[in-house]
Amino acid sequence: ETKSIYKIASIPADGIGPEVIEAGIAVLKAIAKKKGNFSLDFTEFDWSSDRYKKTGSYLPDNHLDTLRQFDAILFGAVGAPDVPDHISLWGLRLAICQPLQQYANVRRTRILPGTNSPLSNCKQGQLDWVIVRENSEGEYAGQGGRSHQGYEHEVATEVSIFTRVAVRRIARFAFQLAQSRPRKLLTYVTKSNAQRSGMVMWDEVINEVSKEFPDVTMDHMLVDAMTVRMVLHPESLDTIVATNLHADILSDLAAALAGSIGIAPTANLDPSRKNPSMFEPIHGSAFDITGMGIANPVATFWTAAEMLEWLGEKEAGEDLMKAVEAVCEAGIKTRDLGGSATTKEVTAAVVAEILRS
Ligand code: NAI
Ligand code: MG
Description:
Number of domains: 2
Bound molecules: 1,4-dihydronicotinamide adenine dinucleotide, magnesium ion
Oligomer: single chain
Largest sheet: 10 strands, mixed
Strand content: 15-25%
Order of helices and strands: EHEHHEHEEEEHEHEHEHEEHHH
Low-confidence stretches: none
């Protein structure tokens, strides 16, 4: 039997990014060792706000060619207190996932054992969602501009771009994902009452694509009403698809409802597999806790498990999540989950659980 070797580009970047990526690599190495049928070869890149402040650029000119040589990308977080957020986000994260056509952003949420939802009536198992976010266009297409900047009569535009091709491909992806889950239930979210062009096209395209998936039950929510349903009836939802902006907001809400932003994973996928996909925690660089050693590494562990599944190591991904759940259940949790463990203690416990079980 030949052993698969996966080449992983790691980009820890800013704030708590390096802390959680170090933790993520430790558990990935442990699971590869335990399984024995594959290995992971990590190459670290120093692309970050520090690099930007020194050289004027987050990325070298050839970053896409460089990244295309890898099987996957493990990303920390970008953002520094002394760099405007739109510069850091567009300079690094969007400069990777847009050109690499990682058009499907997948965000799973559930309540892990040993943790609590802030919803008092919501128990483990009653909140088990996967949010699919259109990740290539929409409100984050980057079309817009400012004229007469700083003057009284300044005008600024931020134009949303919706294409039939991109809506159709994300709809197909979401239906396939919904179909693969036991409930086969897809809720699509738009705002087609107030926004009468792009959002109405979304509704039309999704309804067309739904005909290819007669076994999937579909329903529709307006985004404002969706926030209410997520809070009051979490058990009524399973797979959710929405635009870049709407799903960005809904997935932060989802993470909070499941207990903490510190557990929530993200996969930025190119479903065509022409380009490597990128895996990252949902959270940002968290300046308020940087360097304190208390960042929750669970979001990075969960996204590492998603990465293994995408690479074809489904069993390793599932085993990794079982170890994370066992450690949560044993109460070894960071402060954001009501515990007192450090990043290193949680990481050591997960590594020990992987090697033990
Ligand atoms: P944030 O996610 O960094 O932090 C929000 C709150 O959650 C903070 O109180 C933080 O301490 C806490 N938190 C986040 N991750 C945690 C973890 N793993 N364990 C424990 N607590 C955690 O969001 P914020 O403060 O709005 O943004 C900080 C910077 O990060 C900004 O520059 C922002 O642009 C950037 N950002 C980057 C993202 C990315 O790289 N994908 C995503 C979101 C924000
Ligand atoms: Mg966000």
